[in-house]
Hints:
There is one protein chain. A 5-stranded parallel β-sheet has the order 5-4-3-6-7, with helices on one face. Strands 1-2 form a two-stranded antiparallel sheet. A two-stranded parallel sheet has the order 8-9. It is of the alpha/beta class. It is built from 8 helices and 9 strands. It is globular, with a radius of gyration of 20 Å. Helix 5 packs across helix 8 (about 255-270) and helix 6 packs antiparallel against helix 7 (about 240-250).
Amino acid sequence: MLRITDTRTGHLVEIPAAPRRLLRSCVHLPALGAGTDDGTGIGPLHLRVPLIGDVLARTAELNGLQVVTVLTTPELTPDRARALDRVMAVLGIHPPTVIGPHRPEAALGGPADVHVTAGDTDPGDLADGARIEVGRVDTTVPEQDTAAPADGTPTPVDTADPADPADDAPDPLAVRLLLLGRPYGTPVTVTGAALAGAGRTLRDWRRSVADWAQEPSRPIPADLLGQSHAALAEDLDVAAVLALLAEVAGRSDVPAGAKFETFAHLDRVLGLDLARDVGHQRPTGP
């Protein structure tokens, strides 16, 4: 059973309602602005909304559901449409059916079970289905504030660590990890330092997964499987899954083969390409 908090009522609701096994999801892209550096009008919030739609679809599929996802957009020029396709691809977002500003029922095959929208936008009359409102994404922070807040928000520094040579080649999936690190309705601050930290986490996890893959496979411990699936099925708590992976990576009581299977299994939802370096380890001999 997959449940999300309908932001219109504040109550957890099951989607789709039992016993139906097809989830119809409609993702609403906010109106594009002209203030971005690349001139496309596509900003971080425009990535976070379809990203949450992608995680919702992946979680539903992990729970044995069939999923149809459509993306409603404002009228897009051909250049903006191509730019949107490119940025969704580099963030690992499975391509939804893009239907422009049209109503989604025909493409979905019926009324939507859930709408994924930006929290500060009004996508129109959404009488059918539950509603997931995605929190804003901030990129401007006070320059003098360089300490990490106690609540875990990204460190507000807008330059990468010059001492880390890997920062010269940023990983686009670090953006995905950073945006997934907070509950979907919570604002996220994107900074250079936060992206650099996410990139280091990805590199560390990928190296570890590649090392664990060399050991005999072991089943995922039942408690880890249950905790992770329960977190995802209860309001898409991806942040709890990421915290669980960080804990598992350091546990001596979990065999390496089980760690590999755990990371590989949950990456079906996370979409972080955690097994990318398997088979590409550097020789460790003299």
